[in-house]
Amino acid sequence: MQRLFTARQQGHGDTVPISVTTDTQATMEEKQAFENQVLERLNAGRSVRSFLIAAVDLLSEAVNGLVLQVFRKDDYAVKYAVEPLLLGDGPLGELSVRLKLIYGLGIISRGEYEDCELLMALREELNHDHSDYRFVDDEILGPFGELHCVAAWPQAPALSGDDEMLRAMQQQRYQQVVRSTMVLSLTELISRISLKQTFKKPGS
Q1: Which of 15, 36, 65, 89 has the fewest CB atoms within 10 Å, i.e. the most exposed one?
Q2: In CATH, what number is assigned to the domain containing residue 71?
Q3: pLDDT digits (tens, 9 = 90+) for 51-83
Q4: What is the DSSP letter of 157?
């Protein structure tokens, strides 16, 4: 007989199987470990350009994983039927096409789809614009302000008038907070997409 917790849930008479709690705990630990990996890779991008490259690479990995879930899982099917679809000259070779597929199948929400599209477009724009942008520049904050995954942006500080050292410190602090907001928001977005299962409703 399966062992059960002797303690009862507060306000309920049902006992809780140890196996259920153990499985839930293991799942939470795996989720946390994955989020930590995503956070580490995003945090390594010190410049705006390297940050966006890391973000889109991670999104590409997440989308690829979902596309593979859509198709048959056995090795033969993956090697001879699925992989050719995902190659550069295959019908699903472009990340934007794979993204449209999983959105069209209802695997990701509209907000998640639009966030991915925006990040891909911004990275593509920076491929042609070699300016050394900061995280607080309007060219970066403007597009990022449209992301659904960012709950709230930090307020820009009221810079002190004459004290240049204080102004510099305030600007540096603001940039750090903005960058941290970007890192944490995209970590949550990428992790949420990566850990989805196909053919479940968006947000599940």
Answers
A1: 89
A2: 1.20.120.330
A3: 999 999 999 999 988 888 877 666 666 666 667
A4: P
State the Cα torsion 100-105-111-117 to the nearest 10°.
-10
Number of domains in the chain: 1
On average, the pLDDT of the chain sits at 81
Angle at 22 between CA 18 and CA 27, to 5 degrees: 150
Q: Kind and range of the H or E element at 17?
A: strand 15-17
Specify if 203 maps to a domain. Answer: no
Residue 16 has pLDDT above 60, yes or no: no
The domain of 104 spans 4-194
User: Does residue 104 lie in a domain region?
Assistant: yes
In a domain, 115, yes or no: yes
Which three-class secondary structure state does DSSP give residue 4? Answer: strand
Q: Which residues fall within 8 angstroms of residue 5, CB to CB, at 6 or more apart? A: 15, 16, 17, 18, 21
Spatial separation of the C-alpha atoms in residues 187 and 71, rounded to whole Å: 26
In a domain, 201, yes or no: no
Angstrom distance (rounded) from CA 64 to CA 58: 10
pLDDT digits (tens, 9 = 90+) for 157-175: 877 667 788 888 888 899 9
Mean pLDDT of 187-204: 76
